[in-house]
Write a structure and sequence with these properties.
Layout lengths: L19 H20 L3 E2 L5 E3 H4 L11 E3 L5 H10 L7 E3 L4 H10 L8 E5 L2 E3 L11 E10 L7 H16 L5 E7 H10 L4 H12 L1 H4 L1 H10 L4 H11 L5 H14 L4 H19 L7 E3 L13 E7 L9 E6 L4 H4 L5 E7 H10 L13 E3 L7 H13 L4 E3 L6 H10 L4 E4 L2 H5 L2 E6 L5 E5 L3 H13 L2
Parallel strand pairs: 1-5, 8-9, 13-14, 13-15
Antiparallel strand pairs: 2-4, 3-4, 5-7, 6-7, 7-12, 8-10, 10-11, 11-12, 15-16, 16-17
Helix pairs in contact: 1-5, 5-12, 6-7, 6-12, 9-10, 11-12
Length: about 475
């Protein structure tokens, strides 16, 4: 064999790959999330992994320091032709870093083909050129929903979002969680009413949004650095720490709005928040599942109204497991038309990674098969194939062993793949149209007529695995 240079085939940092059991878990989570999305009438779409750079950066500087640019690597002869022709590649392209900005471009491109309000979901991979670390990836899957209206969008769509979040996390059974709700107008209005300069309000919101990560001292220091007085800093901090039941917080906000000057935006935000909370309750979401948290701001500038973050009780260090909010101008910026929207995103790759590490979720078995038909004798292969097909036609996932290894080795292979049942048929069993059904978890083995095997297996699977 010719000597070859050693190739580094290790996985690039920040780009995950899954073992079979992990990929099966991801597929299960995606299926569960998809079912909930579709129950609420959301329809799937797909946008390109690649967008024009000017599209991705159209709304402020949302992705300037995290976008992966795309530059084709041409063979030498093609590169020379390109340079000779003076082609500088002026149409810059990049990999999408989220689903929301590409959605806005998608709607602009297909405006006359869609019905509004347009409710879509996407479960695509996105790319961010940030520093890879535990739970942070450069490539990851996001599961998003958004509803976009043309001209207007009812606040009841905002109310529907927590119902969807609650249904998803109850279905995947990861423990208690809390959906924290706020409204950016409440923050914007309050900051304006205590004299924060208009040009500093967005910066103030961004700083408040970091409170859980950096703590009180750093937040206050950052607020001072954008020219807030000591009194304003204290007022901002105290405001974001208002706590109580949903009704308590609403009552405190209303009382505060009555005593403050220049509180029109604050009052509007409170009214919107009250409407959303009423809708959430009418949709049957338990008060134990949500709260008003005035420290929730969401850092991205395109959010203008309701905002959400969801945390896992007892595992708050995991951070937000689902977040999003309402935006008014993101879609319209492409077509010059008012098109408000509201949506959320579940960073599935990060969430799954963290839940596996915390022991909240476990990886699935490496194979979806629940039955292996063992190869006892090569001359009975026709029987093994027939039995395998009978079981598959009855709805079971089956592996037929084609290896002529010893039975013990085949049973070990099945056990390693966490296949619970093996079918063993030798000459005597075949002659009598019987088989041995072996439960690898208990070691129990029983004789079963081949004609009734599917029924027996189905009953065992239903009883033991609830499938």
């Amino acid at each position: 064999m010719a000597k070859i240079d050693k190739i580094n085939y290790s996985c690039p940092s920040g780009f995950p790959e899954f073992l079979p059991g992990e990929k099966r878990l991801e597929s299960y989570l995606m299926d569960t999330i998809r079912q909930v999305f579709e129950r609420y009438g959301f329809t799937p779409i797909e946008t390109p992994a690649v967008e024009r750079l000017e599209v991705l950066q159209a709304k402020g500087n949302q992705g300037d320091n995290i976008v992966y640019g795309l530059f084709p690597i041409l063979p030498p002869n093609r590169q020379a032709e390109k340079e000779k022709a003076g082609d500088s590649g002026s149409e810059e392209r990049a990999l999408k870093f989220d689903q929301t900005v590409p959605l806005a471009a998608y709607i602009a491109r297909h405006l006359n083909d869609l019905n509004f309000p347009f409710a879509r979901y996407q479960m695509d991979v996105v790319f961010r050129g940030e520093r890879a670390k535990d739970g942070r990836f450069r490539q990851f899957r996001q599961c998003d929903i958004d509803v976009v209206g043309r001209g207007k969008l009812s606040l009841l769509y905002d109310a529907q979002i927590p119902a969807i979040i609650a249904e998803i996390f109850e279905a995947i059974n990861i423990g208690d969680f809390l959906i924290r709700i706020n409204n950016r107008k409440v923050l914007t209005g309050f900051f304006a009413s205590v004299g924060v300069a208009a040009e500093n309000i967005v910066s103030c919101i961004r700083i408040v949004d970091t409170a859980e990560k950096v703590g009180e001292a750093k937040v206050k220091k950052a607020l001072s650095e954008i020219s807030l007085s000591e009194s304003q800093v204290e007022k901002v901090w105290d405001f974001t720490k208002i706590k109580g039941t949903v009704d308590d917080v609403l009552d405190k906000l209303k009382s505060m709005a009555e005593t403050l000057d220049n509180s029109e935006v604050l009052t509007q935000g409170i009214s919107e928040l009250e409407t959303v909370i009423s809708g959430v309750r009418n949709l049957g979401v338990s008060d134990q599942r949500f709260c008003i948290d005035l420290s929730i701001a969401r850092g991205l500038d395109y959010y203008t109204g309701t905002v959400y973050e969801t945390t896992l009780i007892g595992h708050e260090a995991l951070g937000s497991i689902c977040s999003g909010g309402r935006y008014e101008e993101l879609v319209g910026m492409f077509i010059g038309e008012k098109m408000p929207g509201v949506g959320i995103s579940i960073g599935l790759t990060r969430l799954m990674s963290r839940l596996l590490k915390a022991g909240i979720l476990e990886s699935f078995a490496p194979t979806p098969a629940t039955v292996m038909v063992v190869n006892m004798q090569e001359d009975l292969m026709a029987t093994y194939l027939d039995v395998s097909q009978q079981l598959r036609r009855s709805g079971m996932n089956v592996i037929t062993s084609f290896d002529s290894r010893g039975v013990g080795k085949q049973l070990q292979q099945a056990d390693k793949q966490k296949i619970p049942f093996c079918i063993i048929i030798g000459s005597e069993e075949a002659a009598a149209n019987m088989c041995s059904l072996k439960d690898l978890r208990t070691g129990e083995q029983m004789k079963v007529p081949i004609a009734g095997l599917a029924g027996v297996l189905k009953q065992r699977l239903i009883q033991e695995f609830r499938i």
